[in-house]
Records
---
Amino acid sequence: MAERVFITGIGMITAIGDNVAGNLHHLRLQQSGLGYSSYIDTIYKNVLPVAEVKHASEALFALAGIPVKEGYTRTTLLGLAAMREALQDAGITDVQSAPTGFINASTVGGMCDTEKLYFDIINPEKTGSFLQYIDTLDCADCTQRIADTVGFSEHIATISTACSSSANALMFGARMIKQGMLPRVVCGGTEALTRFTLNGFNSLKNVDKQFCRPFDQQRTGLNLGEGAAYLVLESESFARANNSRILAELSGYCNTNEAFHPTSPSPDGDGAYEAMKMALAMSGHSLEEVSYINVHGTATLNNDVSEGKALERLFGDKVPLFSSTKPFTGHTLAAAGAIEAIYSILAIQHGIIFPNLNFSERMEELNISPVTTLMEGYPVNHVISNSFGFGGNNASLVISKYEG
Amino acid sequence: MKGKCYIQAMAAISPQPTFEGDIFSAQLVHTDSNLLACIEPDYKPFIPGNSLRRMTRVLKMGLTAALKCSQESGITIPGPIITGTGKGSLQDTEKFIKEIAEYKETALNPTPFIQSTYNSVNGLIALQQKCTAYNNTFVHRGFSFENALLDSMMLLQEGATHTLTGAFEEITKEHFYIKSRIGFWKEAPTDNRELYRHLSPGSIAGEGATFFTLTGTPTPQSYAAISDFRMLYKPRGGKLAEALKSFTTSPDLIITGRNGDSNHEHYYQELDQCFPGIPQLPFKHLCGEYDTAGAFGLWLAAQIIKAQQIPATWFPGTEHLSAPVRTILFYNHFYGEQHVMLKLERV
């Protein structure tokens, strides 16, 4: 019998807070992190809203707990800030105290910094300290700088499956624990806003000029965001022997590919349906036991139809309460799965359901609509958290209240 | 990672003629440009023309190697697809960065953006095979393919009957120049046939797409068993030697990622000291150095252990095996950071 996997520490930074408490505070205040960029060099600065972390990279060094130095990208700094909190929250002062893996997720690595230097990097006439950023072009750079700063050496990996990257990182870490390979793995992802990604999604006509409106009839697209989040996963036996404080259980997960289209989900949500169904089956819980679904809900035309249809197919006329928290954080791509996994834990811990901001009109294709007001004192026992991405990469997680 | 898996089928697109024909009579392709580029196959038998036109080089190479591997496996039900790539589609990434500047962020074609996404090859494989099973992409330099392999072995342990597991990488002229600025490549033009005789800083660049069908149980077709496997991140002090010695005792053959780079040669020397007298074959003169070269090395090791034969023209001086090869130790590292050891057994 494989071990259960417990979550024993969480850390995050997003546009609505530099840590978990800050995020919870602004979720409760129903205060969105969306606005206009102060840091990306783009013509869309005052046109396309983004959810930016409210610190210049220089100030992020302090949150990351390191002196200012070359070669540390915004992606790395956001990651380090979240990592510091996750380790502290789990009471880990030395990651070497037990074999600990680190599974990170990233979609464009250090593009946030390299895109500003790229034309110098390829120009033989230019030289200088910017050359220290050359290796930050890839996704492993942030992982290794975070690992080297805090001392991970046991097992490291970086996953990139677009918007489902950090959900897959959590799954991979949990599976390593269940196979008895490691007693403890820190999993999550980090994402900094870039001109590259903003133009990418904008060229796909997927970005809303207004604040995004998930599951709304009038929605026209997503808003990008940035942030990082990590969760400390421990095997049941390790957590008990270590006397760890258990926040929740990662009770189920599923990764499927939709094999439908390179960037669009199927209209009936086959991939989303399968991912949720299988993740729930793994958790051993029934449809009726699901208290809340933190949906992927990007507010793109295609995602919300597809995901909504999948919800209706799976739950029939008893679709649980659901909401998208992307109007708070923007779509943070590689970090989204981990950020929303933490929100799912907060929902369980505090008995809250977060409102789906900016909703006013039910979609004509659906018979369901999201929660629009903050609900407090609502018992939340099992949450499904969805992350669906480009390339048909779908992932669902089930996070359950710890009951011994 | 304990627990065996078996290589049921393989396919490799590389700078050598590895995609078709008999590799044991193949010629050794050579260049002194310090960049070993892939011999690209005819893609038309694998990819429909209208898709082919849109796809860039590494997507075509990755998808084609994956499809060929699936065909060779004789397994018709598609299973999990897991890949590794250090850099993904560099050509698309470079193109999109430039078009953003050139067109001042307006009227951009989204195709290079979509194709620059690291999981785009995986998505294409799944799409073409109508495969809705597990799908994952690892992007961690010299641990990219290796984590894909680890994931695959875990899936087989969890009950999957087979996986399609691979790696793909391309080198562009621009990226070759970028990496030359931080000492990745040798300064003097170096013929790949002479790679190991020129110990100096840096190696020669390469690229490739290599896929494997892995199964949990052996079949008459199996090439080899992967019986143990370990990754080591930035080993300091005596950690590497310690790990190598505890990993295996007396393999019949060692296949190494030696690459003529004097900056990191000392790791291979540690290997030499751990296993004196055991014959070694290096593979980087065939494929060059790149994040996922380890997948090519594994492909070569599996060829040799199955055929009990060395591709003679590729290894002048060690054309023949002196004794049967029952076990192979494979050891590779990527610029001293990500170290990998694998044990292969004859089936």
Note: Residues 162 and 215 of chain B are 4 Å apart (CA to CA).
---
Amino acid sequence: MTPAAPPPPRTSFGSALVRAVRDDRAATIGALVIAALLLLALLAPVITRITGQDPYTYDASALDPGSGLPQGALGGISGTHWLGVEPLTGRDLFAIVAHGARTSFLIGVLATAVSVVLGVALGASAGYLGGWWDRVVGWVGDVIFGFPYLVFMVALGAVAPPSIPRQVLLIVVIGFFGWPRVARVVRSATLGLARRDFVRAAQAMGSPPWRTITRRLLPNLWGPVVVIATLSIPERIGLEAALSFLGVGVRPPTPSWGRSISDAIGWVQTDPMFLVVPGVALFLATMAFNLLGDGLRDALDPRTARQGAR
Amino acid sequence: MATLRYAGTRVLSGLGVLLVVAFVTFAVFYLLPTDPAQLSCGRPCTPENLALARGFMGFDEPWWQQFGEFLGGILTGRTFGSGATAIDCSAPCFGYSFQQSATVVSLIGDRLPVTVSLAVGAAVLWLVVGVALGVVSALRRGSVVDHLASGVSVIGVSAPVYLVGLLGILLLGFTLDVVPVSGYVPLAQSPVDWAWHLVLPWIVLAFLNGAVYVRLTRGQMLEVLNEDYIRTARAKGLPERTVIGKHALRNVTLPLVTLFGLDLGGLLGGAVITEKVFGMPGVGSLLLEAVGQLDLPLLLSTTLFAAVLIVVANVLVDLVYGLLDPRARLT
């Protein structure tokens, strides 16, 4: 038996991605910055072992004994401390930024993964099955959109028991609040696909819904999903940093860019480099993902409207 | 009549969402093993004192019963404890902060002017500047202004508010010394000082939030300018000003209304980060104080308050949408 209508070609998806990134200069820069930061995050323990530093050890010798400020210009930048040191403790800022990248990427990427898995599963099933299931998913999504998630997460961070590892809590909570947006995009893409001949043909041949969704729909949903995932990661990274900035994110001494920026408030006037170093790292990461995401969207999915959230 | 029914269903569904948010928040906070009575029980905290505190606050009842009393309190008010030490919380009672010895309604009410000043001022600024820049970018596509606006808006979308805020404080507050570094002065006390303290937060928030408006206005404008009715308007010999201002811009307003309503509602509900950076004693700071003191009733009510604003913003957006676009009323 030969299929009546062949599905659209999908072998070219990987190369389409590469081409989309290569043809867009901003997206190329974004991809390169992400690769560099990702490498820094993955190799942080190795790199800091080479520099002989770690983000936890206090180093009073790098500080001015009277004021607690770093010794030397620009926040104490030197051969041993590549990006200077933290005032008051003398901890190595390069090690803090490198290990902070691990925290940011871990939470940003895994929380996005949670949103994408939930969003694709719920969005595709809602769009394909329709009926009461579609209404339930849509309604739950509406409730979550009405949820003041930042305020709720701050409050939750205060009351959550210490026995739950903070990283796990952040990944689950941030990821959970992100699924409705993915689901909306996936649902509308599914509605469009469900009318196409190759899906109809599969249905006509008696393919059960589960099989149709996984074999026919999902392979054709990659474009919008990749775009929304790439644009979600910087928001999740920003959210983790914001929560750590507010004191309800990852617990010290685990390094986090957001907490370092929060620590820098009191030193803005006397040691601005302490603000600039983690701040630039965070800004580079979010901007790189935004540039890459915009480029991918233009190439793969020009109709998806960008929604800002802050 | 159709309009009234449309408005009615929107308001009802908004109330439904609020009820669910309240229920979920309540359940999550009260199921976690945090004991608010333990915190307000004096030292040494004997088991009798603890039981007394629990009974006084109503924390000794099952959580679903507490939720019922919470909802009842909103409508009819509540009294905690009895006799001479009883605390009266008149309707609408959204809870009582035992740590701050005040009803949460009065606590939020005290802080609200700060947050409103901050959010509304910034919102007006970003709406005006964002839309104006977006229109200019669309009309002069590919010009220096267009490239500059899109470059700046990429930065605005990516930069976190605390980073831009702190850099602004460093540059304008400490180095150039043209604006205050932090704090808030009530409008009634001195309008000049009020505006002077708010100007930097307004600019920072407008820069970050306005970026999306530039992008959205530009994109929508480019789409609209290709429509037939614009060509017709131009062919009729209407001045370009009328074509852009009346015919084109009117069709760009719909998505802008949605975005603006949700942004403003979200910001009013808790500009937590901005208030922390600029040392403003608003609703967001109240939330952070509640976090520090583990003040459960206050945490619950600030979350609910933020939800109310988001839901109200959503309902208003839907209603405005119905007014602007008659087609929306039909669905």
Note: The two ends of chain A are 53 Å apart (CA to CA).
